[in-house]
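tool_call: predict_structure(chain=1)
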Amino acid sequence: MKKEYSSFRDPSGFIFSVDNYVFRQVNNSYKAQYDHLMNSGLYQNLVTEQLLVDHKPIDLETNDPNKYMVIQPAKINFISYPYEWSFSQLKDAALTTLKIHKCALKYGMILKDASAYNIQFFNGVPKLIDTLSFDFYHEGTPWIAYGQFCRHFLAPLMLMANIDIRLSQLMRIYIDGIPIDLASKL
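tool_result:
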């Protein structure tokens, strides 16, 4: 089992590979959210609308006491990064993220993570690849991922549209998104 180095920050689970197959461990700490995602109809709605990558549960032993279950996402043939995308692709990814968040709200959930790196294009269609990006919505609370959405989508789109298309390359330097104070100074 080889853990994906970029998947270390999420306490809900992590990505790993075995023999060139990619899997995601769902941790016990995310059990309630995962079960709600799967049983509420949200997962099926998002997959049907081509907004979320499909996955299947897998019986795979990881010897990890934190494991709730293991899932295998559909294979991504080509990985691309936000700083490689055109303006239109970044805009489509942003709109997809908002569409997913709006849909999640109808099922009592939110997107807790609005990273552009969680979107990949499948035959030109942007889809969320992080099944563990959902959390319960609590009435009256602001969107926890709003700042991240602004740094990953709004700031680069604004800079690309109003100053110079090449400013998308700032996403290479700022993996957590372009700082809003920097974007406002430019």
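agent: The first strand starts at residue 2 and ends at 3. Proceeding to next step.
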